[in-house]
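User: Modeling request: complex.
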Amino acid sequence: MATGAGAGPGLPQVRGPAVGGEQLPTGRDLSEASRFSCAALCAVSLSRLFPEAEHSSFRTEWVAGLVKWLDLSETVLPTLTAFASGLGGEDTDSFTQVLLKDPVVEKDPVVLTQDLLSFSLKDGYYDARARALVRHVSSSFPVSSEELHLLEETFLESLKESREEESETAESSRKKKEKLRKWKRYLLIGLATVGGGTVIGLTGGLAAPLVAAGAATVIGSAGTAALGSAAGIAVMTSLFGVAGAGLTGYKMMKRVGAIEEFMFLPLTEGRQLHVTIAITGWLASGRYRTFSAPWAALAHSREQYCLAWETSYLMELGNALETILSGLINMVAQEALKYTVLSGIMTALTWPASLLTVATVIDNPWGVCLHRSAAVGRHLAHILLSRQQGRRPVSLIGFSLGARVIYFCLREMSQEKDCQGIIEDAILLGAPVEGGAEHWEPFRKVVSGRIVNGYCRGDWLLSFVYRTSSVQLCVAGLQPVLLQDRRMENVDLSSVVSGHLDYAKQMDIILKAVGIHTKPGWNEKSVLLAPHSLPQEEPPQAGASSSSEKATHEHEQTQGPKPGDTPRVATRTNPSQTQVPTELGQSDGTALPPAASPTGSSQICQHGVDTNPLGCPDCASETQD
Amino acid sequence: MDEDVLTTLKILIIGESGVGKSSLLLRFTDDTFDPELAATIGVDFKVKTISVDGNKAKLAIWDTAGQERFRTLTPSYYRGAQGVILVYDVTRRDTFVKLDNWLNELETYCTRNDIVNMLVGNKIDKENREVDRNEGLKFARKHSMLFIEASAKTCDGVQCAFEELVEKIIQTPGLWESENQNKGVKLSHRDEAHGGGACGGYCSVL
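Assistant: Request completed. Predicted assembly structure:
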């Protein structure tokens, strides 16, 4: 505690001491022309990325800060401000060229990204716009997004280390505690997921290993030229929220409006400088009965949560959807419906009578869930606005009603002040929301990165259930949203999604199609993520404790992943089905048997060419462009 | 703010280091003079609205850095410029001799061929003149440029230089009208005219 305090926050301009005598170059080591180019490049990029008037103060402040950070003369400020406000600077090539010729950058272009990252983080506030900008600028050097991720992780590590160094004495006991906590957390999650959707409140279950101690140190001791001017703890606290507990610490204290359940469940264990929240659209029986199940392959960030909301209604909805698909409508009719929807001749009046007779099965839960999802979305907006997640960017991804939650979340946020710089990407898949560009327009203000609308033209189920909500068939989940903005990306998922229920089942392919990073060898990674996974006798135990709560307990017993389940998984022949992740996902660390899914990984990461109709993620993103 | 502004013109100031480019600009925009003005970093950018023949024009003036280390940045500013002010120091012959280099660069990077150029001999208030007025005039004629001698310190000819340049640009409607109408599609507009010859097409006024 005491060792770091001496170097404390009082030395704003001093870079952190280098460990091992090695100091990596920073932005200040560039030549003046390069530094100017760097600032100019950022300024011009800012004006391109965020031309909206709402972002003008961010642009000017950012540029002004950068000029100081790079040790540039004040005289360049007016010029750079002019750049940032969109005047001049049509051409960034020359700036890039100058930078690339700089000996420091030439040697390692990551220096620039790192420096911009340090600058973005120096106040303990990672703005989503800053991240989008760093990503944009880095891409021209070319620094890949993986490298950026790595850098962010390095920063996190250096922040952690700086803290741990000064509290060495308490380290061992704390580590013990953390281990215990982890166990406890697994247990709790286990209870939560095994119960088939009933979620047990995790009050700060994800402990704050990073921010626990109170002393401040100067960051940068890890050899990365990190945040020289800010105290590490302050930065960490600010970035990760006061409790450091992240979103799992959030608990709905009282019933908010009509919402009965609202909870964040961790999908991954890691900590990251940006958070991803996945929102499930319904809960089916079987392997998709948990909120986390569809997101097993999601690897957008190392810190991912899924939102648990309104379990009972979503289960009812899921059951109704499945009933319609499996029982009441035969395959021929489904195909026919698909093409009717595809051809666009469907109106509310032309639905086949056979379908309308079963409409009562679905209309009620659908109506309730439509209503609830909007309320949940609004609630989520206020949680994000109040920075429960800390001051770092959040990406939202959801399918079906989960996408509707996002839609209403963004809409609610857009009506608030200070809504900028929180959301990085928003990915809406098969969203039962208005598809008119005017409804999406306000999102430009809120979202810094991408707004992705994944749609399926032949999704007759969506078009059917949405028929009562909207007279015209202008549903985002069925057609592209024609918003003229660089953020807006429409991805036609028709070839992947053949029915609305496929959004959950084909999520890993969909994620690749919309350019979201998926776990390359996610099963191996899961093993790594759960090093303390419970002993083999644990799963039944956990299941038993919650058996009284849900009847689905039996499913767990029969279908749940047993540690010895490997052969069954291994014999799967069609990798594109990828049922494996779902089993992993629902166990989510608790009962995760390290060897549960050995086959999936290699097939999934290679399956780009043959089984994924959209090709490998890289190709997919290219074709989508 | 600019409802009655006829057009926005992009003016570029180039020339060797220390000839007084920034001082000229400062005199023109703020009517001040600083003998200790620091070297420009990268580029300086100022906006000023002036009225010529009853037409209001908004000038976006780019004052480039003359120093060699920033030279690589200069080409990017040439794009879309309607007028260029080429400055030399009448007390330093080397800055006059190097004008040819600047003209070469202009030719290489300018995206239009009807761009208006003006040659300005600065610092005429100083005693130790090395470049005669007639030399400058001759050079300007040879390269179809406007010519004026000025002093940022005494304010001599500065206003005149900018006004004359703007007047000439406005008299060349092809130079600014299309630009004005196609504000939304600037990119395509630029690309097509790349690499055209420079400085031809009309006579000097002086």
